[in-house]
Model the fold of this input.
Amino acid sequence: MITVTYLGSAVMARVLAVLFAGGALKSPWQLEALIFGAFFLASAGASAAYLTVSEIFPLEMRALAIAFFYAVGTAVGGISGPLLFGQLIATGSRGAVALAFVIGAVVWPPAGSPRSLPARRLKESRLKKSRRRSARKSTTVQSARTQARMM
Done:
């Protein structure tokens, strides 16, 4: 779900960039509808990612990671975003403003796609550890039974 929502938002942002640069959007409501659609999908992906993280990691690690990445993301995006996009808007060129949408379309897919790899690896390593523990316990129980029979 996370990957699909981020890819969907990237596709919508790319479509928005093409339509905006070509002057095909005649009403401001068309522009707003596409922007709302793209950000709705990205927001759904971010919410799903937050829930996924909350189920995978222990409480302390989860709280620290979420706080750290929220702070860093807010700092980076809050500082660079207005500076970059303000400069693009100040040019008055539709192509420059469309570049802002293209930047969003490029940034969103990687945000959603690598999520599955670390989570899958963590689950697999936990499964392997659990299986090893179960195998050790069953071996210990079997050897104890064998020794009891021999006595």
User: Anything to note?
Assistant: The chain has a mean pLDDT of 78. Residues 116-151 form one domain. Residues 78 and 88 are 16 Å apart (CA to CA).
